[in-house]
Design a protein that fits this description.
Largest sheet: 5 strands, mixed, barrel
CATH superfamily of the largest domain: Recombination protein O, C-terminal domain
Strand order of the largest sheet: 1-2-3-5-4
Bound molecules: zinc ion
CATH class of the largest domain: Mainly Alpha
Distance between the termini: 51 Å
CATH topology of the largest domain: de novo design (two linked rop proteins)
CATH architecture of the largest domain: Up-down Bundle
Strand content: 15-25%
Oligomer: single chain
Number of helices: 7
Order of helices and strands: EEEEEHHHHEEEHHH
Number of strands: 8
Number of domains: 2
Length: about 250
């Protein structure tokens, strides 16, 4: 029997059994955890209001074993990050970050560096609403997860590829320049998008075409490596068609 508290971002939650919910959260103390929130769909549940994606909470958890599904025995909200859910464009970006962390991390494997990167990036997106924060975080997440992701120099000849079109090689995890033999399976990427990747920062708003290319590349790379679909890249496309954006 083990009870502890953990600070973390709620990644997602879904219905479970009769009136319960399962939550997935990325925590500072325990990494990604899954927990059952009993009775959380009932109107008077003390948890329901806090179990929203992107919210930062202190979770009280209980487990009979060292790993597996925890029981959620309490939630104390630290930051709701409500604007990330009320604005559809921001919700698309936040969903992409939450889903990526959910896909890329293992349960019960704490990573303080990644936790700081993640909470800082969500704060930044919530406060400044600039898309560069999201893409920068995704590249950092992939690198923190052990992927090579060489986007600046050709993996074959070492030439600087910034500003020039190339191909992203999935088996090698980086760019092959136009002058080198292409190594399938790979995906073409424009010089313009590679230029944005090089200049990525929290202050850089990316144009639509670059976001689509970069989102497509990251989604396909994750699919190649892990066999999982990154559904939120579609969210961004859908929301873009419905909303007016600041770019
Ligand atoms: Zn080359």
């Amino acid at each position: 029997m083990r009870s502890f508290t953990a600070e973390g971002i709620l990644l997602r939650s879904y219905d479970y059994g009769d009136g319960h919910r399962i939550i997935s959260a990325f925590t500072r103390e325990a990494g990604k955890i899954k927990a059952v929130a009993r009775g959380s769909r009932k109107i008077k549940s003390k948890f329901a209001a806090y179990l929203e994606p992107a919210s930062l909470n202190i979770f009280s958890l209980h487990s009979k074993k060292e790993s597996g599904l925890y029981s959620l025995t309490g939630v104390r909200p630290l930051a709701t990050n409500g604007n990330l859910r009320s604005d559809m464009r921001l919700f698309g970006y936040a969903s992409l970050m939450l889903e990526s962390v959910d896909i890329m991390t293992a349960e019960n494997d704490p990573d303080l560096t990644l936790y700081s990167l993640f909470t800082d990036a969500l704060n930044n997106l919530s406060e400044n609403e600039i898309s560069g924060t999201v893409w920068l975080f995704l590249f950092r997440l992939l690198k923190a997860s052990g992927y090579r992701l060489e986007m600046f120099n050709c993996l074959n000849c070492g030439k600087d590829v910034s500003g020039k079109a190339g191909r992203f090689s999935f088996p090698s995890g980086g760019i092959i320049c136009a002058g080198c033999a292409e190594q399938p399976p790979s995906l073409k990427i424009s010089g313009r998008s590679l230029g944005y990747v090089r200049r990525l920062s929290e202050k850089l708003a990316l144009p639509e075409e670059a976001e689509e290319e970069i989102g497509n590349l990251i989604g396909k790379y994750i699919k190649y490596e892990l066999g999982k679909d990154l559904k939120s890249t579609e969210f961004i496309k859908i929301f873009r068609e419905k909303c007016t954006f600041r770019t």
